[in-house]
Amino acid sequence: MTADLAHALLGMVLDGSYRANPASSSDCQAGKDAEKMQWVFYSVGAGALATGAALYLLGYSQATPALVGLAPILGPRSAGLSVRGGF
After folding, report:
1. End-to-end C-alpha distance for the chain, whole angstroms
2. What is the DSSP secondary-structure string of 46-72?
3. Cys-Cys with 18: which of 5, 12, 39, 68 at CB 3.0–4.6 Å?
4. Is 8 helix (H, G, I), strand (E, B) or coil?
5. Which pTM value belongs to this model?
């Protein structure tokens, strides 16, 4: 019986009637969405890299200390934004 089953499966594979895990349309759409986001993040990263390189090469320096500051705060159970200011 095992040989018959193997022969039947081989026949299905060879004639294309057997698909181990057919992709659904939602899987295809999720893949396309992930690909779009991949290129968006590549573009954002390239823009940040170009901006950093331009500021470095042009010798940007801050002459006076900033009077306003923002900083992210991340903890195991909390997240927030710290705002600092002066006058």
Report:
1. 87
2. HHHHHHHHHHHHHT---SS--SEEEEE
3. 12
4. helix
5. 0.44
43: left (phi over 0), alpha (psi -120 to 50) or beta: alpha
Which CA distances in Å does 2 have to 15, 16, 17, 49?
20, 21, 20, 60
Would 1 be classed as within a structural domain? no
Q: How many independent structural domains does the chain possess?
A: 1
- The single-letter code of the amino acid at 48 is A
6 part of a folded domain? no
pLDDT digits (tens, 9 = 90+) for 15-44: 655 555 667 778 888 889 999 999 999 999
Asked if residues 81 and 71 have their Cβ atoms less than 8 Å apart, the reply is yes
